[in-house]
Design brief:
2 copies of one chain form a homodimer. Chain A is mostly helical. Helices cover about 65% and strands about 5% of the residues of chain A. In chain A, strands 1-2 form a two-stranded antiparallel sheet. Chain A has helices at about 5-10, 15-20, 40-55, 60-70, 75-110; strands spanning about 30, 35. The structure holds a DNA duplex.
DNA sequence: CTAGGAGCTGACATTGATGTGAGGTCCCGG
DNA sequence: CCGGGACCTCACATCAATGTCAGCTCCTAG
């Protein structure tokens, strides 16, 4: 199939599909006019790629992961994904921490005893 | 005081202080040589700015917020901060959702029945 | 034959705080 | 007077997926 059809069938934009290829996540044959031709398998592959993106994986990580999945190399897939999960966890922790800080700012801002005391510090 | 001292006393880098000024968060007098001169109050102001950044506020939002705090305009500060809290909450939710997706990917990757079935879909 | 639709490449924009480096001014101590 | 340190401005790099535009080729239906 051509890129437009693949886009329609996967929900990815044409631009995104070209980007996936650029990042080495997806390959395509070319017809005589230089247009990309995809095998049926591309539909599932794009679905998997998008699943990765939805899981906050970067294209770089997905590029590492896909071959491991194809090789069914569980230990290495596992190691990679565990590391990513740790990163994500850290990000969530950071944002949760930021929320605490934000609540502090809200407390300061709404404190009736607080009067333009920018000069005197927190 | 000059920018180096302010940086030392606040923990912000010289670069960051110039950036805060560029974003309208901090003002400075200039001496005859064009160098920035800060009043004592700048120390507390920078602390407040950094508190905002630690709370995941953007420079744009901090720029909106500071005048409101100075004016002790609680309702508007409150509205702004509540909106930011909602945004942050949404981000946390999104990341938490991504974690669920990641766990799905981990399940797929470690599923012993999964064998290079990229072609057959998820 | 022709208009238009689909594809192609290449490239810039987005978002944002900070690092970094170049190239220049200025001031002070030795 | 000179070296060096502190400061200045300007500007590019970072990270990443996607949108969007320009300018082009190619195929096909009418």
């Amino acid at each position: 199939m051509r890129i437009g059809e693949l886009a329609a069938r996967t929900g990815a934009s044409v631009r995104s599909l070209r980007y996936y290829e650029e990042q080495g996540l997806l390959t395509a044959e070319r017809d005589s006019a230089g247009r990309r031709r995809y095998a049926e398998a591309a539909v599932a592959r794009v679905a998997l790629i998008r699943r990765g993106f939805a899981a906050s994986l970067s294209s770089r990580v997905i590029a590492e992961l896909l071959p491991l999945l194809e090789a069914a190399c569980v230990p290495r897939s596992r190691a990679l994904l565990d590391a990513e999960r740790k990163r994500l966890e850290a990000e969530i922790t950071a944002m949760t921490e930021a929320r605490v800080r934000l609540d502090e700012v809200i407390a300061i801002a709404t404190d009736p005893t607080w009067r333009c005391d920018v000069e005197t510090g927190s």
